Amino acid sequence: MSVFAKGLIWLVIAAFFGESIEFFINMVLANHLGESGLGHYMTIIPTLFLIMILASLELPISVSKFVAEKDKMYYPVMLRYAFRLMTIVSLVGMTIIVLAYPFFPFSQMVDARLQWFLIAFVPIIAYSSIARGYFMGTHQMGAIAFSNFLRKVVQLILLFMIFTQLNMTEPLAILVAIGMLISSELIVCLYLMMAFHRNWHKRKPEEDEWLDKVRIRRALMGISIPTTGLRLFHAMTHAVQPFFIKMTLILSGVAAVTANEQFGLVAGVALTIGFFPAFISHSLLMVLIPLVSEAQANGDTDKLKRLVKKSLIVTASYAGPSVIICLLFADPLTALFVKNGIAAHYLVLLWPYFVTHFFVIPLQAFLIGLGYVKATFWQTVWVTIVQFSCIWGLGFVMGLGMDGVLLALNISGVLLLALHTISLIPILNKKERTILT
């Protein structure tokens, strides 16, 4: 079995069960937080992802690319540098949260103790990112797959145990929900570090080769910084997006409470259901980046084209059926979360957004693996500008409300897919001509 197929199967199986558990997690959250509490919870989550990106510096991608391209003798010096780097990142990140937390837009909505959960979250993500990158680069996807599954299991168990035993106010319930998510990340971090330690000491003793720190920094930061910029921009726009959407709805004549509830139904129900198969595309991302990097380093254009073909076939095989299921069974699927028919309408309206997302992720993996992160970043920037403009224009100016907002998301998804496709085709053709000459 090829490395591509083996790694993808490991990740997809674990992610399938993990996403199935995510369904139950969101059902528990919807039942115990209510529509208003779920809206506030979903408003906080993008900021949590923003912290995750800053704390990790996207080292899983840069470390995996380094490991896939370099000889094993260079691993020790790179890993020592990475651990020192993430220690500095953790200290700086925790300090920033202490100083900036009072200015977070949700700081007045929830229990003040949320600040301490966020502070602890920084080093958890920072150190686990190194182990993730190492396992990705050495194609040991089993450890990554199990860690992803473990996180969901721990989160569900903790939520179920606490919510079924205690009655809480809405702010405290939101604090507990966020705290259990971060606690599950802590368990995963401990598992990854133990697995990394065990795996590292099982390797064959080899003479470690010294590598200049400047070269290591360039190798890691050359990928980490632009990739972090891409993810950071993506996370920042998603952190702002809930407030922008709510403001657009309110200005279009929707009551503030109704706007919050509508956003909760979109983010907590429709997007949760529609993006359920996205675990396959994200599994492709983790498998493809080191494989594409390795193929590029070896000048193997044929392998790159085979990977593109396989990725598109895999994506089409699940994207089509998943959309059909959402269109045919929108009402019973959304009824698992809330007894509100409008959620089914939102799910049906968003089907183009889901399909384009499924194809965009593996295309981004190719662009990143080939070193075209900046192109990916600028395309995302322009598409986001178009998206926010369309949200404002369709939602407020044309008075379409939430339907206009969702139509804007569909437009942005189609545009981003088109830009990535147009970029990748000439890159592959150029590399083929270079090999032939």
Query: What's the number of helices?
Result: 15
The total of beta strands comes to 0
End-to-end Cα distance, whole Å, is: 33 Å
The main β sheet shows up as:
none
**Alpha-beta content class:** mainly alpha
Write down the oligomeric state: single chain
Return Rg in Å: 22 Å
Strand-residue proportion: under 5%
SSE ordering: HHHHHHHHHHHHHHH
Keywords: Cell membrane, Membrane, Transmembrane, Transmembrane helix
Main location: membrane
Membrane topology: Multi-pass membrane protein
Protein name: Oligosaccharide flippase family protein
Concise description?
Pfam families: MatE (PF01554), Polysacc_synt (PF01943). It is a multi-pass membrane protein. Helix content is 85%, strand content 0%.
Question: Which terms would index this structure?
Answer:
single chain, 437 residues, mainly alpha, 15 helices, 0% strand
How would you describe what is shown here?
The structure is a single chain. By secondary structure, this protein is mainly α. It has one domain (3-436). Helix content is 85%, strand content 0%. The chain has 15 helices and no strands. It has helices at residues 3-56, 59-69, 75-100, 114-137, 141-165, 170-202, 213-251, 256-274, 278-297, 301-328, 330-335, 342-349, 351-369, 373-397, 402-436. Helix 1 (3-56) packs across helix 9 and helix 7 (213-251) packs parallel to helix 14 (373-397). The longest helix has 54 residues, at 3-56. It is globular and about 60 Å long. The relative contact order is 0.12. The mean pLDDT is 84.
